[in-house]
Structure prediction request, 424 residues.
Amino acid sequence: MMCRPIKIQMEDDVALDLDRIRAVRVLGRGALGTVFLVTAATGGRLPPLFALKVFDKRSATKPHALRRARWELSLLSRLSAAPRDHPHPHPFLPSLLGCVETPDLLAWAIPFCSGGDLHALRRSLSPSDEEAFSPAATRFYLSEIVVGLTHLHSIRVAYRDLKPENILLRSSGHIMLADFDLSRHLPPRSITASSPPPPLPSDNIRRPLRKLTRVFSLGAADNQIKQARLARVSPAGRRRTSSSSISHSDAEERSFSFVGTEEYVAPEVVRGEGHGFAVDWWALGILAYELAYGRTPFRGRNRKETFRNVLTRPPLFPGRRRTDLTDLIERLLVKDPERRLGFTGGAEEVKGHPFFHGVKWELLPEVARPPFMAPVIDEEEEVEQERSNNERAMGFDVRDYFKGLRQREPTVPPSRSSESLEDF
Ligand SMILES: Nc1ncnc2c1ncn2[C@@H]1O[C@H](COP(=O)(O)OP(=O)(O)OP(=O)(O)O)[C@@H](O)[C@H]1O
Prediction:
């Protein structure tokens, strides 16, 4: 089959050759695509294992699904393009390893995160949802997320889908924000101040790694960080929300589409007022709450109740003890976006909150022992063994995977993705 590369701005050639890669297994299925663990033929520029997100053009009944897939790809390309002042891939954002388009598929490769996602990790640690991460672990993850958001905002991109399921964990234990199909470029006038990306070193660069305690000033209680083996738990499906865009003459400045995951949607989005970068700071508040307390603060019995809570209720904290974390959450969960932490001062304002006091932001990627490390996976070894045992039996071709799906479902019903992305 002819595979044609997508024209995107990259310094290196990123065209993937589907004849030279084999899928080992499906890593996950989302509203937009299926993600595979993939191995490439030896000798190329690709790592031995990587993730391949594949968008099946034939199963998408709505044109905006393809548009979203293309947007995600173009953003990844942009994140990977190395401007002179920031020459390495961002440590907490994915880099684009390659991409390919066929008449049926649009596929792109990003680094494989063997640690699963934060939602699965939290559930594996506390299945009852009662306990959650320690303050130190919460601070570590929030800090890395803030650095990722700082960079996105600096290139005028609002993420709009911050939630634990989209925070993947690399084998190093550091985070990688994933899933950018809901993100949106916001033109300058809508921008709340956001600082330029810090000159973070790539995690490809060999440097002496640092201990968590040298990057964070940890209190005694915070030192009780436990090592945990990660269970591969499928993230519980949380409904993503997407309904009609609200038309507005000012639409160039702000986004008026109604997207996100119910429990993470900001009040201004519920009210249909249009939104800017402050939606990400709101979502950071929800995430901070969920990481610390094991549940989101405004969840109701149904969508209507959740939204009512989002609009009217203050977050309530178990035990009512006031801490820097509860203060941070309250300031991020201010209903009026213009009074929300981060609106006026951007990421620097968030970083300056006392909860983050002592965080050495530029050293974060060098923390050698993050709170949780993924179990050492020997998939790479397995792949190598299989490869030497029997080259032809190794894995499967992603094109065959989708052909097989189509044969089993001759008339493809509207997919979950096309339903949930309706009218975007
Ligand atoms: N780089 C990666 N490494 C490991 N697993 C990954 C990677 N990227 C994605 N996954 C897995 O695949 C799942 C689906 O990926 P992703 O969220 O990007 O797809 P999507 O179709 O955009 O989903 P959504 O419905 O959230 O929009 C993720 O939840 C995750 O479990």
